[in-house]
Amino acid sequence: MVKTLATNRIAERKLRDKQARRAQILSAARRIAELEGWSNVTVRRLSDEISYSQPVLYAHFGSREGILAAVAIEGFQEMGLALEKARKRVKRGNTVESIAAAYLEFAVSSPALYEVMFSLSLSVPFDDAATPPELRFAFSQLLELFQGQGSKPEVLSELFWASLHGIAELTRTKRFPRSRQKERVRALVELFTFPG
Amino acid sequence: MVKTLATNRIAERKLRDKQARRAQILSAARRIAELEGWSNVTVRRLSDEISYSQPVLYAHFGSREGILAAVAIEGFQEMGLALEKARKRVKRGNTVESIAAAYLEFAVSSPALYEVMFSLSLSVPFDDAATPPELRFAFSQLLELFQGQGSKPEVLSELFWASLHGIAELTRTKRFPRSRQKERVRALVELFTFPG
DNA sequence: CATCTTATGTAGCATTGCTAGATTTACTAA
DNA sequence: TTAGTAAATCTAGCAATGCTACATAAGATG
């Protein structure tokens, strides 16, 4: 059997189709999740949306969990990019302020996406080598922030991340009133901005 | 129909039985959750554990959600008490440090309980009048901390809570390595301790 | 004892995640 | 073109879940 040109093009087209369908699934999952919550993202519902039978979804991602995980990875990738942008185009002097604003904006504009990013059960820390690169990338944006500041940049970065995550999560789940959000962020920025 | 003494005693016994069974259900739910995760806390499993049929559970709490909510309330009550204790018996000078340690100790020693406390979907902020008293009580322990400090005690308290919650959550879900936990807490305490 | 109320159980529905096996479609080679 | 093979896709179904209508048993009351 010889690999003709046609064979190659066919294989490529198949790959494209596959990736397109994969993207369709993830897109549908995100849309439903944002509009109706993750509990309404069922495999049957997704298979309806993309007009394929259920087993097709299981061929792409091994399980429902797998679909959520893929969405979560997308989320980390996008968040990493958003943070990178915020870090590079610093507006009014303070990088910490810019990053904090970008982080919380991301969380508030895609609550379901943010939710799944952190409900994804991980077995490995953010800064570990065995961690998906998208997560490492996002975290590295925060690490960068405190580089050279004090003795332990990782500790400060983690603390900053934790504070942002806490604010995001307690806001998303309605524990915090939106009314004081600006003041909260101002206080946060003040705490994490050091002279020098 | 007259209410005899016997009638009263019978009614009281029934009430006791009911409360005992309620406690049994919640206790079983907590045990299973801590050992096997909340997904293994099914209504059938619980009804097996207490040797009653499913409808009995639905008579007590209207739904599975209702059972989790009741556990979450218990959790807030217990956390409030733990924080109160930590605030009153301040060991080495620093109240902030004592509270932070108590909070994280609570979260780490009952991860499933902590998890359900914050996955419970609320519609009302912590400091609202319409919030279950157990939640208000727990939050009030943190409010107390920064009373008189600066201009906005609520803002500082919320920020402190957010930081603690972020650390707890990112630790519980394995995002943070345990190894740096002590340093993280030290840095946190330093940030939130003000001269005076 | 008879009756009525309350407590409890039985059995079943609809929905879910997931999968084995049939079936159709797409490609290959004579 | 066509028979045969491999890949893609679907049909149908299982077991488990949350929940509930209805039947039955237990308990209290006259």
UniProtKB/TrEMBL annotation, chains A, B:
<dbReference type="InterPro" id="IPR036271">
    <property type="entry name" value="Tet_transcr_reg_TetR-rel_C_sf"/>
</dbReference>
<dbReference type="InterPro" id="IPR050109">
    <property type="entry name" value="HTH-type_TetR-like_transc_reg"/>
</dbReference>
<keyword id="KW-0238">DNA-binding</keyword>
<dbReference type="Pfam" id="PF00440">
    <property type="entry name" value="TetR_N"/>
</dbReference>
<keyword id="KW-0805">Transcription regulation</keyword>
<dbReference type="InterPro" id="IPR025996">
    <property type="entry name" value="MT1864/Rv1816-like_C"/>
</dbReference>
<dbReference type="GO" id="GO:0003700">
    <property type="term" value="F:DNA-binding transcription factor activity"/>
</dbReference>
<feature type="domain" description="HTH tetR-type">
    <location>
        <begin position="19"/>
        <end position="79"/>
    </location>
</feature>
<dbReference type="Pfam" id="PF13305">
    <property type="entry name" value="TetR_C_33"/>
</dbReference>
<dbReference type="InterPro" id="IPR009057">
    <property type="entry name" value="Homeodomain-like_sf"/>
</dbReference>
<protein>
    <submittedName>
        <fullName>AcrR family transcriptional regulator</fullName>
    </submittedName>
</protein>
<dbReference type="InterPro" id="IPR001647">
    <property type="entry name" value="HTH_TetR"/>
</dbReference>
<feature type="DNA-binding region" description="H-T-H motif">
    <location>
        <begin position="42"/>
        <end position="61"/>
    </location>
</feature>
<dbReference type="GO" id="GO:0000976">
    <property type="term" value="F:transcription cis-regulatory region binding"/>
</dbReference>
<keyword id="KW-0804">Transcription</keyword>
